[in-house]
């Protein structure tokens, strides 16, 4: 899904505000080259972002865990440089 700018993301959250569970700490949006490739709602107060391929498990966001058919070589190279610890 392509959303044009940050205000579109904010509006999406505001539209769902009353439906969002009170235990949600944050909405995580993973972007690549102005394209949203994933979103998740975090219930944990602390979330680790790393280069693993887990996607999102509630506590960790693995940046290589989201599919993007339009991913370019520079992004792949950057992802490989990020630790997966």
Automatic annotation (TrEMBL):
GO terms for biological process: post-embryonic development; regulation of developmental process; regulation of DNA-templated transcription; regulation of multicellular organismal process. Residues 25-85 form the MH2 domain. It comes from the Eukaryota. InterPro entries: SMAD-like_dom_sf, SMAD_dom_Dwarfin-type, SMAD_FHA_dom_sf. PANTHER family: EXPANSION, ISOFORM A-RELATED. This is MH2 domain-containing protein. It comes from Leptotrombidium deliense.
